[in-house]
Amino acid sequence: MWHSKAMPELPEVAGLRAFLDAKLRGTVLAKVQITSFAVLKTADPPYAVLEGRTVDGVRRFGKFLCLDLDGVHFVFHLAKAGWLRFTEDPSPAPLRPGAGPIAARLAFSARRTESSDGGGFLMGFDLTEAGSKKSLAVYVVRDPQEVAGIASLGPDPLAPEFTREVFDGILSAAQQIKGLLRSQSVVAGIGNAYSDEILHAARISPFAIAKTLDGDSRDRLFAAIGGILGQAVESAVGKAPGELKDSKRTTMRVHGRTGQQCPVCGDTVREVSFADTALQYCPGCQTNGKILADRRTSRFLK
């Protein structure tokens, strides 16, 4: 079953970045409301200094998004259950703290270069979070590198600097490849869903040890990272935030498809469950037909 709370990963965040940059660049951040102070991880500078500043652009760092406002940065990470809800008719009414899923609301007014009577907002967005376990995070900083999660990121897998030589260095680890791909300090932006898809495309077991992979496996894996993520970003860019989750779901071949037929070999997609998550894989494509044992009951089968 597909989980609607699946964490936004690099392609969805890239889609959000492109959408917000096109909509907000040059507008003025007129009003900021933080309704859940647990999400605000910084105190200096205070978030009120963002008001009245022009949006110079929107950047992505791994799964983080960053609005550059005249040199002060509004950074957020949607975590597992967070999302961005965009509107071109934001309400001027103040939000009540703790009421509903909205953690923060930003409203934007006309560009400074355009005439405006100051009588309303052009557009805005809410940062929302479902469920009781809150991990959405907001930062207001002078430099994005002040955010520890950004400063510790590994290379972006779609950046020119992510070469095969760099990737070989990453694969020198004596660690299971699934966990390695998900480690943000090793590779930025890949999470549970796209690591499943990448490993399926590369025909590699999620529990293969990285440093033991042979040259052909490394070639397939490197190509799958670029191919899967590149196609997903191409699909995501140009879509509104409300369309991105459905777009992601329809492109998945194994992730969230437990019990369904693998579109490549016809085998049944299987699942391994953990305490708070699960992975999916195809035995026919990835493990020579072997079933990986559930970690909660027994050891992994290699």
UniProtKB/TrEMBL annotation:
GO biological process, one term: base-excision repair
Molecular function per GO: 8-oxo-7,8-dihydroguanine DNA N-glycosylase activity; damaged DNA binding; DNA-(apurinic or apyrimidinic site) endonuclease activity; lyase activity; zinc ion binding
All residue ranges annotated as the Formamidopyrimidine-DNA glycosylase catalytic domain in the record: 8-131
Catalysed reaction, written as an equation: Hydrolysis of DNA containing ring-opened 7-methylguanine residues, releasing 2,6-diamino-4-hydroxy-5-(N-methyl)formamidopyrimidine
SUPFAM superfamilies given in the database record: Glucocorticoid receptor-like (DNA-binding domain), N-terminal domain of MutM-like DNA repair proteins, S13-like H2TH domain
Keywords: DNA damage, DNA repair, DNA-binding, Glycosidase, Hydrolase, Lyase, Metal-binding, Multifunctional enzyme, Zinc, Zinc-finger
Glycoprotein in keyword set: no
A Pfam family per the record: H2TH
CDD domains in UniProt: BaFpgNei_N_1
KW Lyase (keyword) present: yes
Domain FPG-type: 253-287
Signal peptide as annotated in the record: none
PROSITE patterns registered for this protein in UniProt: FPG_CAT, ZF_FPG_2
Similarity comment: family membership: Belongs to the FPG family.
Protein's name in the database: Formamidopyrimidine-DNA glycosylase
Species of provenance: Arthrobacter cupressi
